[in-house]
Amino acid sequence: MNPAVDAPEQARQAPNPPLLDIRNLQVRYRHNPDAHAAVHDVSFSLRRGEILGLVGESGSGKSTVLNAVLRLLPDGCRLSADRLEFEGIALAEQNPEAMRALRGRRMALVPQRPMTSLSPVIPLGRQLRRLAGPGIDDARLAELLRQVGLQAVAERLDGYSFQLSGGQLQRVLITVSALAAEPDLLLADEPTTTLDTTVQAQVLRLLLELRDRLGLGIVLVSHDLGVIAQTCDRVGVMHAGRIVELASVKDLFGDPQHPYTRRLLASVPERWERGRPLLPDTHRHRAPLRLLPLSPTGCAYLQRCPHASERCGVEAPELRPLKDAQVRCHHPGHAEPATTGKAEEQA
Ligand SMILES: Nc1ncnc2c1ncn2[C@@H]1O[C@H](COP(=O)(O)OP(=O)(O)OP(=O)(O)O)[C@@H](O)[C@H]1O
């Protein structure tokens, strides 16, 4: 059976599948197979026209999820999933040729560092034509760039990438990936990290405009809760390779349920009050938690959690529905500990 031939057939057989459907995704890097999986039991789906944010601290597995979808994980990496489907196409079953055909055409990646994505010695137009695919010449490229307000770049396609600012280059890459190739799914990995706030806003506006115009589904990875709040419909909060909370932007920011989500929100500088610790639960609650039985089968957030119980030490919580969200916690919805917290009272 040739998966490259069978992919469209699989898609036809699945009636109105979500654009992206992921169930129980696990990824383990080769260099350390006995350690915790880099991604563990990640499940979410994405509809057309929807923007899903993935947020979490460095190393929580956000980029690994995107690379698993694109099948761009390094050799020897172990990937398994109960389901890893793009429009009903089982991605894990596609051969490299079929994946190459999907990437860049139907699924596009917006890179974190636009400057390193293009060569500084090859004219911009030539590189963008290659990225955009067959049938796109300089005139069409210039037209697309003008459509999103990048007139100056449209007139300089014979120039070089280093002649553009980081923000211009990121908008050029997003425009060419989305408008020229017309993918169905855009995976954006920290697309605004290297940009200042004004330029960041331009890039986010462009993403929203393209979503509205083309009905793209977008997965947006970001450390920045402000970016997530301005752009996304739903958010998955990642910790230690797991999604610990999956909720609408409104619910997540208005009524966070997982202690880690609460900690993330509390660490946003705008919410920081003078005299209040930036990460309230990291140090304050360490002393009583040492009394808990530690077990590799327990909750991955145990050591840092102000609400951890004996159960959390022995039984890993599953992602379960709670109100309109899904939460991976035995004790969801606890209020943020007061400045004189449990740790101090018990110490
Ligand atoms: N190529 C690799 N080989 C081995 N381990 C890796 C590799 N890439 C990532 N990891 C490990 O996998 C885990 C998840 O990394 P990942 O880059 O997905 O996290 P992230 O949330 O995207 O982090 P960041 O926000 O810093 O990009 C980390 O422990 C990381 O060290």
From TrEMBL:
Asked if the Swiss-Prot or TrEMBL record annotates the protein with the keyword Cytoplasm, the reply is no
GO molecular function, a single term: ATP binding
Where does the protein end up? Cell membrane
Superkingdom: Bacteria
Presence of keyword Transport: yes
Q: Where is the ABC transporter domain?
A: 22-265
In terms of InterPro entries, this protein maps to: AAA+_ATPase, ABC_Ni/Peptide_Import, ABC_transporter-like_ATP-bd, Oligopep_ABC_C, P-loop_NTPase
Its record classes its membrane topology as: Peripheral membrane protein
Q: Which CDD domains match?
A: ABC_NikE_OppD_transporters
What are the alphabetically sorted keywords of the record?
Answer: ATP-binding, Cell membrane, Membrane, Nucleotide-binding, Transport
What's this protein's family per the entry? Answer: Belongs to the ABC transporter superfamily.
Q: What is this protein called?
A: ABC transporter ATP-binding protein
